[in-house]
Design goal:
Low-confidence stretches: none
Strand order of the largest sheet: 1-2-3-4-5-6-7-8
Structural class: alpha/beta
Largest sheet: 8 strands, parallel, barrel
Helix content: 40-55%
Shape: globular
Number of strands: 8
Mean pLDDT: 93
Order of helices and strands: EHHEHEHEHEHEHHEHEH
Radius of gyration: 19 Å
Length: 262
Amino acid sequence: MAKLVTALSVNLNKIALLRNSRGSDYPSVIDFASRAVEAGANGLTIHPRPDQRHIRVDDVYALGNYAAGLTNIEFNIEGNPFAPPLASAKHSDYPGLLKLIEQTRPDQATLVPDNDDQLTSDHGFDLTQEGENIKLVVDQLKHWGVRSSLFMDPDIEQITLAKQVGADRIELYTGPYALACQHSPEAAAASLATYRAAADHAHHIGLGVNAGHDLNLENLGAFLSIGNIAEVSIGHALTVDGLILGYKVAILDYIRLCNNLE
């Protein structure tokens, strides 16, 4: 059997956050989406939030149009489907995640149970409490032809419920694994075993498996060794790595200009 190749979906939120800090369109989210595609990324991910702290509503439409013109590139929109619309004095009003999905028809919608006041996503769905409402959303996504993925902890019981509500995939929340990697090799190995069991179970019951959160160049390789991971979504670490790996080159380019060497 051929080994599953894991797709890389580049999360553009941090590019939008950097842009927003200066109130201009520099750096351009579309430009960096194009750079990611040219570099060989398999997908583009955004996670618009009602407060538009990074990705804005207009970005969703612009990236949707951009991705629609590409082949072999998947567009993935993440977010909380239950967060209400929110008016904005500075930008286009946030219409709700499902309205954005309906209007842009991404390849995949990753549903995430984050609250408006959360700094970042930090837990998966509890489908014993939210299963009925999630099923309604998943059914709507199927009607639109959009693949559904649920942000989940590596919990066997919860993953089984994800299958029962009709999800196409799950995205394993890998924050605890990344934290374990910072503690000790033993903690990392124990955490990895939990994720391997979760991924194996999901695969066995017919769910695709994505993963994301705090994955980076140090911990990603070991994580992917568990197998059955269709896609990883990486943004924060990838952006920081881009600064580290390319920062010196940029400084040298500026020095050359300052020294009239060009």
